[in-house]
Amino acid sequence: MAEHVTSARSGRTAKTLAWLPLIALAIFILTPQLSSLTYSFFRGDGSFTTEGLTGLADSGAIVAPLLRSLVIASLTVVVLIATLVPAVVAVHLWAPRLRPLLSILCTLPLVVPAIAIVAGLTTVLRGLASQGRGSLGMQVNTLLQSQDLPLVLVGTYVVLCLPFTYRSIDAALSTLPLRTLYESSSVLGAGMRTTLRRVVVPNIRGSVMFSAFFTFALSIAEYTVAATLSINTLPVYLNTLSSTNFRGSITLSVLLNLTTWLLLAAATLSASQFGQRAESAPEAEPDAQTDPAAASAAGLSPAAETAARAASPASAAPAAPDSPRKEAQTP
Fold it and tell me: Which has the closest alpha carbon to 311: 286, 290, 288, 287?
């Protein structure tokens, strides 16, 4: 009896100790955020105020940086997904020996600091600008650093997001019978673009959505690269605002942090939700080769639909009649 009580107490103690790191981490993260939130919406005497929000809305200077950051983040998501998914699929299908090399290349941004990447990028841009006015290098430099649409930030953010998005998409593709899906789709008349859009992407939708949300969150909140290249995005404007409207800058910082957390939470929930759907889906799916309706719904060519109808059980040749009964043996 005493041993049972001692083991129960030790189990409760172990559970309590297991929660201590999580509690400490929550305090470490939430304390600065709650302090900033209190300073943003409460005065020193405890009265509620919205001076930070009204100051941001009245000035109107936040509109251009906000729109610029939204456009950059959206374009980064499109470029990253449109280039990374076909590349990883191609390596899985036709060059599996290159997977370690691709993994190393996509993981390099984790090793190289962002400020080092910007330093090298600045050297390249200065080299292009040094060719003189009217030269091709100067035109490329102006195009990349345009304040309306700074493409240099889009490319840099794509590189910075590669390690996380590549791991997610590569892990999702590794769980699929990708070659079987591709060959079946090719037999039914679908091209590579149709296979990617209607076969591969729906099966890795959770990883794609996680990559999109994560890329958007990182791009809209990144400061180092934009500040070094003197491009006025939302985080750069936030730093500039702190010298003239400190309460407004703290309010904007809290809102930006909440937006980033919501995007990351949406990424995690979407990935887990689609993962659970994939696990609960029935293993036996209707085969398009033997189901004309499935072949037609898949958007295949008329020849492929005809082949599917010919292979369907309904159009199969009738079974051969039973063999005649054996003659009775003579006594």
Answer: 290
- Nearest-angstrom CA–CA distance, 13 and 142: 63
Mean pLDDT, contiguous 10-residue spans, the chain (331 residues): 62 78 87 84 80 70 89 95 93 91 90 88 88 85 88 93 92 90 88 88 88 90 90 90 82 83 79 59 43 43 42 40 42 36
Distance between alpha carbon 210 and the CA centroid of its chain, in Å?
4
**DSSP of 279-331:** HHS-S-PPPTTT-HHHHHHTT--HHHHHHHHHHSGGGSPPPPPPPPPPPPPP-
Give dist(CA 235, CA 289) in Å, integer: 53
> What secondary structure, in 3-state letters, does 63-102 show?
HHHHHHHHHHHHHHHHHHHHHHHHHHHHHHHHCHHHHHHH
The residue to which tokens 């390099």 are assigned? 108
